[in-house]
Amino acid sequence: ILLLIRNPKDVATSFYHFSNGMSTLPSYETWDDFFVAFMTKKMPWGCYFEYLSKWNKYADDENVMTITYEELKENPVLGVKNIAAFFGIPLTEKELQTVVERSSFQSMKKNSQKTHGAFGNVFFRKGGVSDWKNLFSEDQNEKMDKAYEEHVGGTKLGAKLKYEVYCKA
C-alpha cells in the first residue's frame, strides 16, 4: 500500500478550492466558513486528522510505504525511485525520467482535459506547497497547529509530515 499524505493546511486549502469548483460538493462563501467546517469534522470525507491517526497504526507495517506530497515535490526522482523499489519494479534511467516527467504536476495539468475532461481544471489547480499561507489567519494557523499536535503530534506519520518545515509560518 502506498500511503500519500500531505500537510493538513495545504489539504484544507486545496479542498476549499476543489469544493467550490465541484457542483456535487458543498461550496463555501468564504474561507472562514470552510475553515470552521474543516476543523469541526463537517467535510464529506470526514476529519483529515482522524484519517492520519487511523493510518498511523500501520506506519511500521512492511506492506505500507508512506510518502508525503512535499517529499515528491522536493525530489521527484528520489520519490519515484523509492516507490518503484517498494513495489519491486525495476526502472531503467530512461523509464525513471519518463515516469518523473509524466507524473509531474505540470504534465498532469497540461493533459488534464484529456484525462479528466471538464473537471481537469478543478483537479489540477496549482500543485504547490505552502499555498495555505495565502488563506490562513494567524488564529486559524494556531488552531490548526493545536489540532495537529492533539491528533498526530509525536506519531510516526506526524514526524513524516515534517510539520516544522512545511506547516509552520
Automatic annotation (TrEMBL):
Domain Sulfotransferase span(s) in chain numbering: 1-155
Keywords (A to Z) from UniProt: Transferase
GO molecular function: sulfotransferase activity
EC number: 2.8.2.-
Classification via Pfam families: Sulfotransfer_1 (PF00685)
InterPro entries, per the entry: P-loop_NTPase, Sulfotransferase_dom
Family to which this protein belongs: Belongs to the sulfotransferase 1 family.
UniProt name for this protein: Sulfotransferase
